[in-house]
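Workshop exercise sheet. Pairs work together: one partner reads the sequence aloud, the other fills in the structure field after running the prediction. Swap roles for the next sheet.
Pair: D.N. / O.F.
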Amino acid sequence: MAYKNLDGETYLQVQISNLYIRKHGITPQEFIKLDDECDVLGFLRDGYEPFHLTGTKGVLREVEDYIAL
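Structure field:
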């Protein structure tokens, strides 16, 4: 696996970012703009403790809810 040397927080950020990009049909550049506006990666970092125990679908829903605020 390409991500095996990443710490848990970074791995979660990469995993959920990729899922969001695929689900919403956006480019990585569009995701970066979204992150600049909403601090999605910071949200994932700050919520790592509960998120790492949650399935990816649940975390993705949390991110979508957070962005919708």
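Discussion prompt: The CA atoms of residues 43 and 55 lie 16 Å apart. What would you look at next?
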